[in-house]
Write a structure and sequence with these properties.
The protein has 141 residues and is of the alpha/beta class. It has one domain: 3-Layer(aba) Sandwich (Rossmann fold). 55% of the residues lie in helices and 13% in strands. It has 7 helices and 5 strands. It has a 5-stranded parallel beta sheet. It is globular. The relative contact order is 0.19.
Length: 141
Amino acid sequence: MMSGHRVLVDTGAWLAAFHRRDQYHAEAARTLKQLRVERARLVVTDLILAEVYLHLLHGFGPARAIAHIEAVVGDPLVEEIFVDQDLQAGAIADWIHGFSDQAFTLTDAVSFAVMRSHRIATAFTFDRDFGVAGFQTTPIG
């Protein structure tokens, strides 16, 4: 991958990177380290951050959850995109209605809409739905 490219980082990837007991922890840590070496822009939405915080809060408690979220938000390589009404409406129309045979979450549908609108080709995720939606994923298989 080229230096400075943008990669959407999904909820599960952040959680795997933060939680040493996660089945994907080693792979997530390696991938995150490689993206940092490449100086990739790590794109998140406010919905992704809300999911990450919820899981961390229940898994680690408030102090660690806050520390992890503040580390993500304060990271100079992280770019946060806030969901507005138009983005949400487009996500629902294009991805939830458009793929009604799939069980895409609202967070994933918004992520797909962000990736399309911001021309982000790759997601750092362990969620197969990104591939179903037609996006490249890392780590690969």
